[in-house]
Write a structure and sequence with these properties.
1247 residues, mainly beta, 7% helix, globular, nucleus, Beta-prop_RSE1/DDB1/CPSF1_2nd, WD40/YVTN_repeat-like_dom_sf, CPSF A subunit region-domain-containing protein
């Protein structure tokens, strides 16, 4: 059983809108619709503030607000995409305190199995009065939804239309009982036509004949793109008339999306009356059979009507637009390459369309004007942006604002006024292009979409993986580097210190609020530093005979309280300036003198012989201190040969008093101690009630009690044998509240680079977990960062352990070579930490403990398609496609290239251009004894081709020096088709070429590398994806299903195949007998190889609707992998989608899978009973017609994000009981709620 969880949510923006509420603060909001989520922001003077979000179970297509002005609420409508479209009614409210809430009021299903989905126009519109909404989802019909006075659902009906190939639709006028819709469509003769129809709510239909407001009007089809995809369809905009317009203008339709922007006005009232009379006469002739008159009338119908005004559109297909100001008739318009222009319509004293170039942005999918020349640009292919239009150019001052073809006349901004004042009646449009960009970016929102390829790699050897993706497109192609970890901002450095092993901060007095000094121990000596101010850090090592011992490494050092006896002979603790230093030879007591700002010795070095009982001095000879720990009133020493000593300080007599002593023997030998700790679990107490001891050879840890009065320190509990020896220990309470001792954990830093953790409760160690932070021994220090109790762990890499969401969490700190760390808070550096690396000390702040760090390497028009890592050269090779932007219907120049980047700095090191007309399709790197090579698959696309018929596979030899990587072709093989995919099998190369799989061997026998074809498999339709493991090849046939092959004796043999209609887009082998894949209908599936007599079969054992298109599977995980012995689950795969989602597939043990399946069923039923959506229905596998009767629900997969909602009900006993009990006795869960909580918390740590 697999669990599907989200590591990074979908970041592609599909729509956005602004709405306002009456008399509320804040009153204006921005809604950003992503694929499966709505984000709501308040518009404030200082910028956008995120208010809340809402998950949508469906693929969001459009969002609209119902324009019913209310004091505190508004109705929002969300339209989801096929295969099961739905209209979701939302109510957004703001209370008097400014708190917002959003609830679902109704789900209206639009799904129809027999209907054909709308090919071009899948949209939602709401009339300006807020009374009617119209949905176009299927061909030949519209769903009309009547809204109540609050903007909620009242009733709905279907209205048939004869315009089958509808391109766009909009409301143009409304009345109480009649609404008019403008439609643009392609008729049966492939002609573009614009018309209006009246919608009657009472009659439940659209008028069968066009409305006289705008009868059928032919639109020049040559002005529009022949592609007619999502970017190529024209858009119609209603332009109302206002007071002050020319008398002959009564409103019109603006058409954008073609080579020209055209304004057609509505028929005036007088003409409408004449046409109505003429229509009646024509109808009379039709009834009398006057065929000549009928033909004449039909010809007149298609007589071209001239646009009222037009202006050239000199750029690519329009993808987004928005109103700037309705009354001023200004519109932002963006094309598919992010080129933004402002269209201004003047209807006074003649009609003029003025198009002003503004600058370049991310390729727009949605534009929303906010206020004060600020607008939101949502993008699918690049980062979404908050932008502002400036009155003067703000960047790129030496270049034209936007490129315009030389054949199109333009004017400068300075010449605009003179042209308008001296208006030429023959000119109805101007294009204004100046110098520099008028667009300034205020804020950017990271977007990974679309992710076409990815690799998971540890480039710097730190043990912390990072993801490198091919992201973006059009004008904003980019490589994204994704790492998980905490933010560290550097504030100060101390250079020149090497081999640092420990750091301790010191205060002038124990109870002082800030630290003033830092003691640093290296392998050979000790250094002391004083923090004077923000720009000064002084060394105060002083006289080694009167101050700190500096010629030896320090084992421990700390401030300490002054312990006294009160009248009742009980211990009291007072603030003091005393400091204890522990070295291998003994202990030293020092006192800080604020007058000279130095530490001076109170007494001589207290050696170990002074602790010997009378007559037993020999038992202390030859011993030295190997580990130590100090708290406010206690000192614990670990001596060689297995002795632990507990001390306290008698300040008055200036001497150390031995309180307890214990010798450890394991297997009749002295047990060598590796680490000790005496950190108090109760922060209000100056002493510890537990002492923790770790051992080298036995690889275990014991917790001792110093309480018994007999002088012994008995063992309370013991850990099991660990994977390696403990190197550092902490028994740590992660909450500062002394009443919460339930969050005490035993943390053990191991020599193999792992951290073992146990929950310590009721003198027992529970819930053992293990997390790796590299391969070097781990040292740990408790650290208070701000108000949060944390632990800093240093090994091969650094991690921060902290308590959040009622569980222990790990977050890597993205720093290398950190050998020691400690907290530090001074006047100059509050709430900071100090770290030691190979160069010295670094002081800085830690924020955002569990942040996802996304680094972007912009490539512009070079859109990355494939990426691979070449470890021997420490570089990434990226296959790119560059499309030079062209005007609509003009030929675009397409070029392919291979670019090479350094895997740390991402500096560009090499570039290789493919042949003219070639596009790269796949990359595969391999290494031989002679060097590193890159195998490249490329296809040549010709305009007349319906299927690729020419391609080649070639090998590049990669040679590098310090500054660049050179690439040269060493061998090439021409293929008759498109080589869609490459994979490595038994040190050979397998390629998917159209319908077949070809295996090549790299032959170097002659001294030159030659690609020799050794095997082929040609029993498929269109093989587009390959995966391999050992000698097994898995292939995905894009218009059929999957097959599993074995390469033996230079031949390909069929192991098994699936004969269903699967339409796979991506496949991956989990093992030799199991596989995972995704198809074009947004489903995930798994198969396993089963024996059936003498043959093997592929049995589908998992099917699940994901709701997104998966482009890549990768084995492994990005986050630190925590292994819990009580939660048998393992992160197995990462997957990447076109909407920018990164998901994790977690493998579950069978017994746990059964329990979580029952939990998902009960949780789904509970939410559905609370008038929520049907989770089972949503995750049921779907095809183009919706859900199949063969699949009643998903199987083989569980929804991890949905299961984690269970944690929301942990504090609600009533809801918790209903979920645990189910709806009947058989549905009652046998697993406890505490166990479920623990499992789900472990699951959360894996994504």
């Amino acid at each position: 059983m697999k669990v599907v969880t989200t590591f990074h949510p979908a970041s592609s923006v599909v729509d956005s809108l602004k709405f306002r509420l009456k008399d509320e603060q804040p009153s204006e909001f921005l809604v950003v619709a992503k694929q499966n989520k709505l984000d709501i922001y308040a518009l404030l003077p200082e910028g956008l503030r995120h208010q809340q979000d809402l998950d949508i179970w469906g693929r969001v297509r459009v969002i609209r607000a119902v324009p019913v002005l209310s004091r505190s609420s508004i109705s929002l409508l969300v339209l989801t995409d096929h295969p099961e479209p739905e209209l979701i009614f939302l109510s957004f409210t703001v209370n008097g305190a400014g708190l917002t809430g959003i609830t679902v009021t109704k789900y209206l299903s639009l799904s129809e199995r027999s209907a054909r989905p709308a090919e071009f126009c899948h949209t939602l519109l709401v009339d300006p009065s807020g009374s009617v909404a119209v949905v176009s989802a299927y061909t030949g019909k519209l769903k009309v939804v009547v809204l109540d006075h609050n903007g909620g659902y009242d009733r709905d009906f279907d209205a048939s239309i004869t315009e089958l190939n509808l391109l766009d639709i909009t409301f143009v006028s409304t009345s109480r009982d009649m609404y008019t819709l403008a439609m643009m469509h392609i008729d049966y003769q492939q002609r573009l036509q614009l018309l209006t129809r009246d919608l009657s709510v009472d009659d439940l239909q659209l008028s069968p004949l066009p409305s006289p407001l705008l009868p059928s009007l032919p639109v020049p089809g040559k002005l529009f793109s022949t592609a007619m995809d999502d970017d190529g369809t024209p858009t119609i905009i209603h332009i109302p008339s206002y007071k002050g317009d020319d008398d002959d203008f009564e409103g019109g339709i603006l058409i954008i999306g073609g080579r020209k922007i055209m304004l057609y006005d509505f028929v005036d009232v007088e003409t409408r009356v004449k046409r109505e009379s003429k229509k009646k006469r024509a109808d009379k002739k039709k009834t009398t059979g006057d065929t000549e008159a009928n033909a004449k009338e039909k010809g007149a119908e298609w007589k071209k009507r001239k646009a009222r005004a037009a202006v050239e559109w000199p750029w690519a297909e329009v993808t987004a637009w928005c109103h700037v100001d309705d009354k001023e008739r200004k519109y932002f318009i963006g094309d598919r390459y992010g080129r933004l222009a402002l269209l201004s319509i003047n209807l006074s004293g003649g009609t003029t369309l003025t198009l002003m170039a503004l600058g370049e942005t991310s390729a727009s999918t949605t534009l929303t004007y906010l206020a004060n020349q600020v607008f939101y640009n949502g993008s699918h292919f690049g980062s979404s942006q908050l932008l502002q239009i400036t009155t003067t150019p703000s960047s790129a001052l030496d270049a034209p604002t936007l490129p315009v073809p030389s054949t199109i006349p333009t004017i400068s901004p300075n010449a605009l006024n003179s042209h308008v004042l001296g208006r030429n009646d023959d000119v109805s449009g101007y294009i204004v292009v100046g110098m520099g960009s008028y667009v300034a970016e205020l804020e950017s929102f990271n977007n990974l979409a679309p992710i076409l390829d990815a690799v998971l790699i540890d480039t710097d050897g730190s043990g912390q993986n990072e993801i490198v993706t091919c992201s973006g497109g059009r004008s904003t192609g980019s490589i994204k580097v994704i790492r998980s970890g905490a933010d560290f901002s550097e504030k100060a450095t101390v250079q020149g210190l090497r081999n640092v092993t420990h750091i301790w901060p010191l205060k002038e007095m124990y109870c002082a609020p800030d630290y003033a000094h830092v003691v640093v121990s290296t392998l050979q000596e000790t250094h002391v530093f004083r923090f004077d101010n923000a720009s000064s850090i002084s060394s105060i090592d002083g006289d080694k005979n009167t101050g700190f011992i500096t010629d030896l490494p320090t084992i421990a050092v700390s401030n300490i309280l002054r312990r006294t006896r009160n009248a009742e002979k009980k211990s009291d603790y007072a603030d003091s300036r005393f400091v204890i230093q522990v070295v291998s030879k003994g202990l030293l007591l020092l006192e800080y003198d604020p007058g000279v700002r130095q530490y001076s010795r109170v007494s001589e070095l207290w050696t170990l012989e002074k602790f010997a009982d009378l007559g037993k001095e020999g038992l202390w000879k030859g011993r030295e201190i190997v580990a130590a720990s100090i708290n406010a009133s206690q000192v614990v020493l670990a001596l060689n040969w297995g002795r632990v000593v507990l001390l306290t300080l008698d300040v008055d007599d200036k001497r150390f008093i031995k309180l307890r002593e214990r010798n450890f023997v394991h297997n009749n030998r002295d047990a060598e101690i590796s680490a000790v700790s005496c950190l108090p679990q109760d922060p209000a107490k100056p002493f510890a009630l537990n002492i923790v001891v770790g051992f080298w050879t036995s690889k275990h840890v014991e917790i001792l009690s110093p309480i018994p009065a007999d002088g012994t320190m008995p063992t309370i509990t013991t850990t099991p044998v660990l994977s390696s020896a403990p190197r550092s220990l902490l028994l740590y309470n992660f909450t500062s509240d002394d009443s919460k001792l339930s969050n005490v954990h035993l943390l053990i830093g191991l020599t193999d680079g792992s951290i073992a953790s146990f929950m310590y409760r009721n003198d027992q160690l529970l819930d053992q977990k293990l997390v790796s932070i590299g391969s070097l021994p781990v040292t740990m220090r408790s650290c208070r960062i701000g108000t949060r109790q944390t632990v800093l762990a240093c090994g091969s890499r650094t991690a921060i352990l902290f308590w959040e969401k009622e569980r222990l969490m790990y977050s890597p700190l993205i720093l290398k070579d950190v050998t020691a760390a400690a907290e530090l808070s001074t006047n100059a550096y509050p709430s900071s930490i100090v770290l030691a690396n190979s160069d010295g000390l670094v002081v800085g702040n830690v924020n955002n403990f569990d942040k996802l760090h996304i680094r972007s390497i912009p490539l512009g028009l070079n859109n990355p398609l494939r990426v691979t890592h070449i470890p021997a050269l420490r570089v990434f090779a990226v296959a790119c496609r560059c499309i030079t932007p062209a005007r609509i219907s003009d030929l675009e120049d397409i070029r392919g290239s291979i670019q090479v980047f350094d895997d740390i700095s991402f500096n560009k090191l090499g570039h290789f251009n493919l042949e003219q007309g070639e596009e790269p399709t796949s990359l595969l790197s391999f290494t031989t004894n002679s060097g590193s090579y890159l195998c490249v698959a490329a296809v040549t696309l010709e305009d007349e081709d319906t299927e690729a018929s020419k391609g080649r596979i070639f090998v590049l030899e990669m040679t590098s020096n310090a500054l660049q990587v050179n690439m040269s072709v060493v061998t090439s093989y021409d293929v008759k088709g498109c080589p869609y995919a490459l994979t490595s099998v038994n040190s050979m190369i397998a390629a998917a070429v159209n319908s077949m799989v070809v295996v090549f061997k790299m032959d170097t026998g002659s001294g030159n590398m030659i690609m020799a074809k050794i095997a082929t498999w040609n029993h498929n339709y269109l093989v587009t994806s390959l995966a391999s493991r050992g000698n097994i090849i898995l292939l995905g046939d894009a218009i059929s299903s999957i097959s599993m092959l074995r390469l033996e004796d230079n031949r390909l043999h069929l192991i098994a195949r699936d004969y269903g209609a699967l339409w796979p887009t991506c496949v991956e082998l989990i093992s030799n007998s199991t596989l995972i894949g995704a198809n074009s209908e947004y489903n995930l599936y798994t198969f396993s190889l089963q024996n059936s007599g003498t043959r093997q079969l592929l049995e589908r054992d998992g099917n699940y609707f994901l709701g997104d298109l998966v482009n890549k599977f990768l084995p492994g995980t990005l986050s630190s992998q925590e292994v819990s012995l009580d939660a048998p689950m393992q992160p197995q795969q990462l997957f990447f989608t076109s909407a920018g989602l990164i998901g994790v597939i977690i493998d579950l043990a069978d017994d746990l899978a059964l329990d979580l399946t029952g939990l998902q069923r009960n949780l789904s039923n509970y939410i559905q009973n609370q008038e929520g959506p049907n989770h089972t229905k949503y995750r049921t596998p779907k095809n183009v017609r919706g859900r199949s009767d063969a699949d009643a629900s998903s199987f083989g997969f569980l929804d991890g994000d949905f299961l984690e909602r269970f944690l929301q009900f942990v504090g609600n006993p009533r809801a918790l009981k209903r979920i645990m009990d189910g709806q009947s006795e058989p549905e009652k869960l046998t697993i406890s709620a505490d166990k479920i909580q623990k499992v789900l918390e472990s699951m959360q740590s894996m994504h």
